[in-house]
Amino acid sequence: MSNPFDGVRWIWKNGQLIDFEKATVHVLSHALHYGSGVFEGIRCYNTKQGSAVFRLPEHIRRLENSAKVYRMPISFTGEELIEACCETIRANELPSCYIRPLVFRGFGHTIGVNPLQNPVEVFIACWNWGKYLGEEAESGVDVCVSSWRRIAADSMPAVSKATGNYLNGQLIKIEAVTNGYAEGLALDARGFVSEGSGENVFMVQDGVLLTPPLAASVLQGITRDTVVKIARDLGIPVREEQIPRGQLYTCDELFMTGTAAEITPIRSVDRNPVGQGCPGEITRRIMAEFKGIVSGEIADRHGWLYPVGAAVPQAAAVTER
């Protein structure tokens, strides 16, 4: 397996680019002990019109909101963070890549659960990252229903893309892969379908696209929102509703979404085939539309592609599309 970090020379740290090898933190950083960090996963695509980051302002807005939940003041504006992402991509000369902004509590000469005396650090890295669930994932993956439940909304807020939340995701993922599955799907605290270890979930039933509501302890995924908008553009009805576990075994189509996973069809759940055991018609239509937009083959009618070399629009980080 090739090293995705080969050729990556620069990482952005607190306002400046530093050597990849020097992007280190103190062992007593608060985040290492207590999980006090938030992050984003963003993709840059090499489109027909040049390198462009997918929904960059929306990702940065979510990063700011995640930090707000944990009272981590970021000393850079949204516009500055947007430009920093583009600067990091340009410096590493990557026409396409995965981008990881990370905000966390560093070392503040104190230790303890209370994070407020620890400084807030901001890093941005980027690297080459192919298909998250494997190069064959577009033909469908096998998943299981995890024995681990998603964190309850009144214990840890799923609305924040916090590093500590992914301990729950790790348990879901580890259980799945050690039992021969590509991914695990978790139920929420009430027993309804929530999400995967790092992906939102959609199903097709009788021509209608269904997805769990945010109240099911799901992250407000940007690819999730993208799929909803694409489906409506294509005339496909979309509903947010609670989904019981049994419906995973009887639905017509099933797929996962996320920045890393993009749109990944599910061909079986707990060894039960979904539909015909291959991507269904609606899944394929949405995948084709998504791929066309991010490649530049289909018009970017929603303004989702942010050119890497562009100047920062003044309202980019403060308006939601």
Any overview of this molecule?
- With 321 residues, the protein is α+β, with helices and mostly antiparallel strands.
- The strands form two sheets. Strands 8, 9, 10, 11, 12, 13, 14, 15 and 16 form a nine-stranded mixed β-sheet that branches. Strands 1, 2, 3, 4, 5, 6, 7 and 17 form an eight-stranded antiparallel β-sheet that branches.
- It has helices at residues 30-34, 56-69, 78-92, 166-178, 222-233, 247-250, 281-295; strands at 10-13, 16-19, 37-39, 42-47, 50-54, 97-105, 120-127, 141-145, 183-187, 193-196, 200-205, 208-211, 238-240, 253-258, 262-269, 272-273, 305-307.
- Helix 5 links the parallel strand 12 (208-211) and strand 13.
- Residues 310-321 have low confidence and may be disordered.
- The protein has two domains: 10-129 and 302-307, Aminotransferase class 4, branched-chain amino acid transferase, N-terminal domain (D-amino Acid Aminotransferase, Chain A, domain 1, 2-Layer Sandwich); 137-279, D-amino Acid Aminotransferase, subunit A, domain 2 (D-amino Acid Aminotransferase, Chain A, domain 2).
- Helix 2 crosses helix 3 (78-92).
- It contains seven helices and 17 strands.
- It starts with 9 loop residues before the first strand and ends in a 14-residue tail after the last strand.
CATH class of the largest domain: Alpha Beta
> What is the number of beta strands?
17
The helix content, as a percent range, equals 10-25%
CATH topology term of the largest domain: D-amino Acid Aminotransferase, Chain A, domain 2
CATH architecture of the largest domain: Alpha-Beta Barrel
SSE class: alpha+beta
Low-confidence stretches: 310-321
Q: How far is it from the N-terminal to the C-terminal residue, by CA?
A: 38 Å
Please identify which CATH superfamily of the largest domain we are dealing with: D-amino Acid Aminotransferase, subunit A, domain 2
> What is the count of structural domains?
2
Count of helix runs: 7
Radius of gyration: 20 Å
Order of helices and strands: EEHEEEHHEEEHEEEEHEHEEEHE
Biggest beta sheet attributes? 9 strands, mixed
Question: What is the overall silhouette?
Answer: globular
What proportion strand?
25-35%
Give the integer mean of the pLDDT values. Answer: 93
